[in-house]
Specification:
The chain is mainly α. The protein has 2 domains: about 5-140; about 140-174. It has helices spanning about 5-10, 15-30, 40-65, 80-110, 115-130, 135-140, 145-170. About 25% of the residues are buried.
């Protein structure tokens, strides 16, 4: 017997849609020729962002039909309320605008990296998931670990930038 109900999947439907489209983009990228345009992958990613917005409207319809939809799901880890639904529309819309803005730019600059679009989608998954109030409360309860992880990741990033800057200027090949 599966303890996870259908309503729990509806609670994370935008994340599931964005993840599926991100995986499609990542799987399709190696199938393209190395010098080929990745605009098609960008259009797939744009479709994923718009499908996530459509999934949010599915959540709105489900919450209007079922009063228990606002209760926490996924073993008390996820709750969808008006706050989360607002960000489920806003964040994928901003990602869609970012993808639209980068379609022509990447072609004009001759940048052929299809994983760019997948990273936008996967980053959107994280942002949308973090907008759920239950997740936010869980993280606040574990704030010490959270801030430690954030601090160390920023420290590693800054050290990588410093190392790259120093090694570029003191390289024997330059």
């Amino acid at each position: 017997m599966n303890p996870i109900q259908t309503v729990d999947y509806i609670r994370i439907l935008p994340e599931l849609v964005l993840t599926a489209f991100g995986i499609i983009v990542m799987m399709a990228d190696p199938l393209l020729k190395p010098g080929a345009s990745r605009k098609g992958l960008g259009l797939i990613a744009l479709g994923g962002a718009l499908a996530a917005i459509a999934a949010t409207f599915c959540q709105i319809a489900w919450s209007a039909r079922d009063a228990s939809f606002a209760a926490p799901g996924w073993f008390g880890m996820v709750r969808v309320d008006n706050f989360a639904i607002f960000f489920h529309v806003l964040i994928p819309a901003i990602s869609a605008v970012c993808i639209l803005a980068s379609l022509e730019y990447l072609d004009a600059q001759n940048i052929r990296s299809g994983e760019y679009y997948a990273l936008i989608l996967f980053g959107t998954v994280g942002m949308v998931l973090m907008s759920k109030p239950r997740i936010v409360r869980t993280i606040v309860e574990d704030a010490t670990i959270y801030f430690f992880v954030i601090f160390t990741s920023h420290l590693v990033f800054v050290l990588a930038l410093v190392f790259a800057r120093v090694s570029i200027h003191h390289s024997p090949f330059m």
